[in-house]
Predict the structure.
Amino acid sequence: MVNQKYLDKAQVLIEALPYIRRYNRKVIVVKYGGSAMVDENLKMDVIRDVVLLKLVGFKPIIVHGGGKEISRMVARMGMEPRFVNGLRVTDGETMEVAEMVLNKVNKELVTLVESLGIKAVGISGKDGRLLGVEKKLSGGEDIGFVGNVTEVRPKILQDLLEKDFLPIVCPIGLDEKFQTYNINADDAACAIAEAMKAEKLAFLTDIEGVMRDPKDPESLISELRVSEALELIDNGNVGGGMIPKLQNCIDAIENGVHRVHILDGRIPHSLLLEIFTNKGIGTAILREEEEKFYHE
């Protein structure tokens, strides 16, 4: 008699098969941030997940943040981190620190991917002028060198994917005068996913997904159409940091991304569970015309 655990493993592989077939050679952008960047075990889980996606035929691109590491380094240098409406006030000195930290994080991620036998290239939005920006204001207030993405030149990413590299992007961009700006990683990932016409954009966060009641984990919404997401925002059912995240999801869908996922990066292998299982574990935002739970 075959051991049940081996049969269960086979069933998992069979369940994943239609997704592997559906998304073969398709671009998936993974926005990597939150606790999954700080916890070493979670970090390795995420990198293994992305490497597996590449090995089964996806074309993954990682866009990473580094806010917690930047805050730590700023504090170590005796500077006081300051935020306005959730955005870091970034003077010239802070910008230098942010770029240094983000480049360090970037190369650490490249090293992890390479250690698993996959070719990776780490770039910033300055390389190939990938990300063009303008100064971003917060409620009309100047918060320094914080950029709003105005243009994406995706050729460098297309070339890297064509040569079978896994691109890892840190969210730094240039304005028209070649001034360096820090970019919110969610915004950068969204802009890149749109420019690449990505099949999927996945946000790894420190939340379970979108809830009908933020105080009730059982109220997790597995799938939302764009109109339903807008309704949640308008009705005040979501608040805080979820509003800009949902708005990014909506913008991405309206600009050509097929599906957007909000995942809890604190759960090991959440990326694989969302993409390769019938129900998933986070929240997927989908187009109006797409049938819900089409995979059930």
